[in-house]
């Protein structure tokens, strides 16, 4: 199973690019299975970065809770519904199975077969309607079950109901008993006595099985052909031959066609109670197309393999991909505050630094290892630094950010200043996205004591488009507040040319009233020289919420 290197929900450029860069570095060093992933769609500027660098979009993963498609065993041992007992029995014995799925000729799931139900074919219920002599099979299956050979074969592929009889008595007693069953349904086991061969052929039995590897005499074989009697030579004695013929029974009567089956995307935890209450031994998992994907047992469900994660650009579970609390988190690489209830069972590598970008930290890791990223990844890491530090103008910028950006330009052969100009020239989020999409493009959830809030940020060249969409953005903010049952939600709109911001808010009036920035309206504030959600806005909100008691 791969190790997913993944950023926060609603990823920004730093989150996407740090995941790509760090996954590449981990593959080069000590985690060959590292794969970059993202938890949400990318914004237009990030898409520009990936297109320009020739990089693929990381794998989209919105939930890492184990699904049945992930935990099921895909190396499936199955049976076909037209197979015989002996074929399926040998397969189950060889693989030490107690149950397996049954498919039709087209590979579609038809039912489940257990070892106990299979054995009932040999030991029928004494109170049942079926005669213990009845064998539903074909002559081909009989011959294969015996490892025998045909001396004469007629319509051997047809499945039919045959009555098994042994000619082990004198001809005087045997001939009257031939009438017990219709000739076309009579399967008669005989030895090497012509006195039994002749009446069997004369009666027109469906098939005669000669034990001990014997053959019919030429004249009797010609009579068998004339009377339409198929002849099989069995290498076994009479007792073994009779048992092996019973093993030629088709498995269809033993198939359980009323059974539990599940779709691949169902969460393992959602079916656990139903599965453990069931007497079924094995459970099939189907693709959306209905094709069989795999199978799982109760033991598989009891301890599913955990997804392995490396978290970048966040360390709070509220911001992490859904189900991260059930995953095995191997490492965290982040430049934000530490919080959000992340708990590990084992020691993990936790790198947290006061730099302006996670991509700065990833770049420093490359330098520490004595490695240079490929040109495309180098540009992507530069984009993350430029984006999160507003081209080194944000108060979060450190000398390390400047040093790493300059090193990337030299090592990977591009001009960081020219790259920054091209990056910020990419179209406006408010122009390219709906208000709902723009709001959730880079939105993070936080918990401050009893208060739950979301803080979104978008970057624009000027506030004109914000003013055009202000009412729609306010409505989208109210929707976010209601859908996620938050106490407070806000949108920080940053002018990357002037390095000023506007703050649009929604939620609890008591929280809104604590904001000390100048008001432009009942739900709008002016934040001069504020561009950082992490270092400027969030500490301001957290400080006031810490003193505010919740009703």
What is the secondary structure topology, with strand pairs?
Layout: E1 3-9, H1 13-29, E2 34-39, H2 44-53, E3 59-60, H3 68-71, E4 79-80, H4 85-95, E5 99-103, E6 109-114, H5 115-119, E7 134-137, H6 139-146, E8 149-152, E9 160-167, H7 171-177, E10 186-190, H8 194-203, E11 207-210, H9 218-226, E12 230-233, H10 238-246, E13 262-263, H11 268-277, E14 283-286, E15 292-296, H12 298-302, E16 308-312, E17 328-334, E18 349-352, H13 358-368, H14 375-388, H15 399-412, H16 416-424, H17 429-432, H18 435-441, E19 443-448, E20 451-460, H19 464-483, E21 488-495, E22 500-507, H20 509-514, E23 519-521, E24 524-527, H21 533-546
Parallel strand pairs: 1-2, 1-16, 2-3, 4-5, 9-10, 10-11, 11-12, 13-14, 16-17, 17-18, 20-21
Antiparallel strand pairs: 5-6, 7-9, 8-12, 14-15, 19-20, 21-22, 22-24, 23-24
Helix pairs in contact: 1-13, 1-14, 2-14, 6-10, 13-14, 14-15, 14-16, 18-19
Structure notes:
This protein is α/β, with parallel strands linked by helices and about 550 residues long. It folds into four domains: about 5-65 and about 305-425, inorganic pyrophosphatase (n-terminal core) (Alpha-Beta Complex); about 70-120 and about 255-300, CBS-domain (Roll); about 135-250, HprK N-terminal domain-like (Udp-n-acetylmuramoylalanyl-d-glutamate--2,6- Diaminopimelate Ligase, Chain: A, domain 1, 3-Layer(aba) Sandwich), CATH 3.40.1390; about 430-545, Diaminopimelate Epimerase, Chain A, domain 1. The strands form five sheets. The chain has a six-stranded parallel sheet. A six-stranded mixed sheet has the order 7-9-10-11-12-8, sandwiched between helices. The longest helix has 20 residues, at about 465-485. The protein is elongated, with a radius of gyration of 37 Å.
